[in-house]
Amino acid sequence: MHRRLRLSVACAAAVGLAVTLVPAGTAQAQSHPDLLPTTINLPNGFQPEGIAIGVLPFAFFGSRATGDLFRVNLITGQGSVFSTGPGTPSLGMKVDLRARLFVAGGTGGDGRVVNAITGDVLASYTFAAAPTFVNDVILTPDAAWFTDSLQPVLYKVPLGHGGSLPDQSAVQTVPLSGDYVHVAGFNANGIARTPDGKALLIVQTATGKIFRVDPDTGVATTVDLGGYVVTAGDGLLVVGRTLYAVQNQLNLVAVFDLNAAGTSGSLVKTITDPRFDVPTTVARFGNRLYLPNARFTTPPTPDTVYTANAVPRN
To answer: pTM above 0.85?
Structure first.
């Protein structure tokens, strides 16, 4: 059996998706994805920010209030908190084929890796002291890369043989240079890989620019988007040569067709939905995009309602 398939099957069994354990109607829902819930209810007062979805129909959300992690079955819409947070934010996140969730720690200045099945913390890494806002993360074959919205750097956590997690001493700080200019306000936010996988893409919230970053040097080059400004830019997602850029305060997703190197792109369309309420980032499952509503303009209380919404990808 192919290694990727072995990992996927093992993870599926561990989280209860073995054929004998799936809920009634699951096969029909998988055959007809339009039957899946389009609104995901999150716990009241949760204050979501990040989302991650892997190869299986499970979404992971982080709380910017407590750092708790919430796992949802996308077929049933049911979920629960499976990992208690450290009391500092859980923001951007990604899940890998080894069922490990990489989580950006916001004002905690850190990142951690959590078992996506048990919720156990597998590793924690300290990146910076205040002022810091470790905002998002992307995975490459050999590293996890984190942005910091208050520092002109990226943090690299190298992965060892077989994806093994390093100790703290291996963490690298990569200064951003080139076209990137650190300004007042929020800076590097969402992060993704270029379509050819050779470089990184980051969005600078304060300027609405997207940069292509050489991971070896940190040199950034402005991506030519034909004059489009990604105002209030937040989470990024690349699927093939399509870039989805969330513009949180504008309640929309800008969709670009990129060249393979990620040096230029053209706006194809924008996606919006009446249910959007300051969505922060985006993940994909099948032909859908899933976005959590951060509701930044709504004062948070223990009873404030939070949701995530699914919209068609094409």
So the answer is: yes
